Amino acid sequence: MTSRRDFLQKITLSTGLASLAPTLLSATPATNSAQQPARKLRVAIMGLGSYGTRVAKAMKDCQSAELVGIVTGSPEKIPVWKKEYNIPDKNVYNYETVGQMKNNPDIDVVYVITPNSLHAKHVMQVAAAGKHVICEKPMADTAANARKMIAACEKAGVKLLIGYRLHFEPYTRKVIEMIQAGEMGKLNYIDNYQGFKIGDPTQWRLKKSLAGGGALMDVGIYCLNAARYLSNEEPIWVTAQETKTDPVKFAEVDETIQFQLGFPSGLVASCATSYNIRFERLYAQGDKGFAELSPAYGYGPIKGRTHKGPLDEPVVTHQTAQMDGMADIILNNKTIDPPVDGQEGLKDMIVLDAIYESIRKGSAKMKL
Amino acid sequence: MTSRRDFLQKITLSTGLASLAPTLLSATPATNSAQQPARKLRVAIMGLGSYGTRVAKAMKDCQSAELVGIVTGSPEKIPVWKKEYNIPDKNVYNYETVGQMKNNPDIDVVYVITPNSLHAKHVMQVAAAGKHVICEKPMADTAANARKMIAACEKAGVKLLIGYRLHFEPYTRKVIEMIQAGEMGKLNYIDNYQGFKIGDPTQWRLKKSLAGGGALMDVGIYCLNAARYLSNEEPIWVTAQETKTDPVKFAEVDETIQFQLGFPSGLVASCATSYNIRFERLYAQGDKGFAELSPAYGYGPIKGRTHKGPLDEPVVTHQTAQMDGMADIILNNKTIDPPVDGQEGLKDMIVLDAIYESIRKGSAKMKL
Q1: ipTM, 2 dp
Q2: B80 CA to chain A: closest CA distance, Å?
Q3: pTM for this one?
């Protein structure tokens, strides 16, 4: 096991975030410009459900980001969160008062963790309040809404990041780094799948009006996003097939979807996702080697191997690493490769739209 | 490592070939009926190319089958094979004289190992000569030809087996056995791929008139056949996508094909095959466990693991096991599950036809 410090040095090298390490490694304030002392990114979470709670807990270990505010429609949660995270009254908002955040200089960014179909509305509200936005993936329910969100953030002059936590995860970064260093040779096959058996049939994830879609939106996006960051190319076509074994539970959203991607180099990807199959794999096959992560997309620990043997990367809390990394992007204008911005989110949304269109058209090949 | 004897006892149990073991284990002739003493299956090979040579060499270790004859269009090969395998002049045929085999009581069966598109013609010639036939996979170039072959063999009263060597291979049988015993629970995902980088651009495998197709016909059929024997179901739909990076080398046949299958239970399969990617995997995911073979389809050694840990099955020469098993099927009317007969071959051909049709129709979903 490598130490957290080793990991941070490693991710700095592998991501090219030259100043990430100093920012993240130092608990002592340093100056990052002549005018302004370095400080932590001050985050409000919008949507205090299970994933919002996970992010909040993970942020307790952040070195560059801190939870300072909440936006919630559930008044009963307010005292609990205030106590747990030392949140002052002035940083507590609901969905009607979020616009007033523009008068609050103590919040830098709002992390939108609401149901997918509400992302567009909420991101645009936050942008209008002049705050940077982190939006959980999928960025939206359609590419059209994703474009509106990007335009709104550009107009407001705020940054828009998408909650792609794995871009900051050591095993994932190691595989990306090995591919980019040419260790696999020319990549020619990707084989990704991710799914789980979803429980409570009344949850919002099974309602199209809130989730926008089913397994594909929720976890299939990991396979798609991974195919894109492994390939370092944008797909030129997609095909898809839907299978439904429980038309009652999955009356509104997709249960199982297989989809395939073709890339300009000739690389192809076979992917699958399901709310009724527990399976998980990231796989990249090149002329000279391969990489496999399995588990690959969950909250960890991730396991992996390549043609060189087992991977042994540091095990981190994904959301801690993500929020520290995003602090550096937002506060210090750093970049990460592959990016985690709105344009990256839009690229996934365009393919997700095309997957659903392929299914509507009898699995027809959709050019991208 | 398990001994060969252990394996034969095992395969007997797992296949239900109750009398396979005595036949295979005993070098001493025994009676299998009151009228007739047990004897070896006397085989002629038609087509003395690289795979025909591999089968001939493997048969040297058979206990229930022996190579006694050849059919070849290459006169220069005759003295070499005669010497190597002690083949008498009377058992040497060419493609014009094969009909005369009907007057030769010393040959039981002809193993047709010629280019795919010639299988139909050759199998029908052999059937007309009153000999049983083993036909290498793919059985034919189209399902229509496969049906003609079955009809011809039925009319002639001879058996028709397809060269599905993996049906006799211990790792493959172990996985089938575990699935059938319910150890994986309900199967819900299959992920098979097989490919290699094909060499010599002038070879018959790249000519449509001889090969009938490319990677799909040659090695993709393993993924398809495995999906069928793992699932123990017949697919109800198929979709497919073709990718070509070298339109000169692969001017006549497919280079890379992805295909997907849906089964009545809701099980789905993602498969891929290529003449330009070296990759190989058989994977079955169930509710309660999984099995993976990789390598899975080559001549061995095959490696595998399940949710219970690594598999450790005997390593056999596939073609030796196949020919001993087929001797028992032909001489003793034994059956094997999954079967290796013409109907099994036809089921694959129907899906292969539909895969090519899906590609012609823009990856449209083809009902089966």
Answers
A1: 0.90
A2: 38
A3: 0.91
